[in-house]
Amino acid sequence: MIDPGQLRTRLVLQRPIETADDQGGVVRTWESFGNAWAKVVPRGSRYEMDADSAGATQAFTIMLRANFSLTLQHRLVDGGKIYRITAIRDARERGFIELDAELRVE
């Protein structure tokens, strides 16, 4: 059984909203639809250098109550930190889900 005291990070859950722009493209904005207390555990990091930027990506395991239906298109926000969900699975603990997520640091 997970100790509720381990759920100490308050995350904002966001879903993408895509609207057409005047040039035939799509503009993506984010809409907050809930808050959840979560256990956020760092797993490791890697440094990446792309053609246009360099930065690090840190991997996390995030556990939260299964009160929300999340997909890989959703994201989680903690202040200025934006976590991109990379995997979702049922946690060993009943009533919880476990997420793999990445945080990009420029």
Which terms would index this structure?
106 residues; mainly beta; Thrombin, subunit H; 6-stranded antiparallel beta barrel; globular; Phage_SPP1_head-tail_adaptor; Putative head-tail adaptor protein; SSP1_head-tail_sf
Question: What would you note in describing this structure?
Answer:
Strand 1 (about 10-20) and strand 2 (about 25-50) form a beta hairpin. This protein starts with 8 loop residues before the first strand and ends with a strand. The protein is mainly β and about 110 residues long. It has one domain (about 5-105): Thrombin, subunit H (Beta Barrel), CATH 2.40.10. The chain has strands at about 10-20, 25-50, 55-65, 75-80, 80-90, 95-105. It has no helices and six strands.
The name CATH uses for the topology is Thrombin, subunit H
Please tell me the overall pLDDT.
90
The CATH homologous superfamily: Bacteriophage SPP1 head-tail adaptor protein
The parts where pLDDT drops under 50 for at least 5 residues are none
Strand fraction equals over 45%
InterPro entries: Phage_SPP1_head-tail_adaptor, SSP1_head-tail_sf
Pfam families: Phage_HCP
Protein name: Putative head-tail adaptor protein
Organism: Afipia carboxidovorans (strain ATCC 49405 / DSM 1227 / KCTC 32145 / OM5) (Oligotropha carboxidovorans)
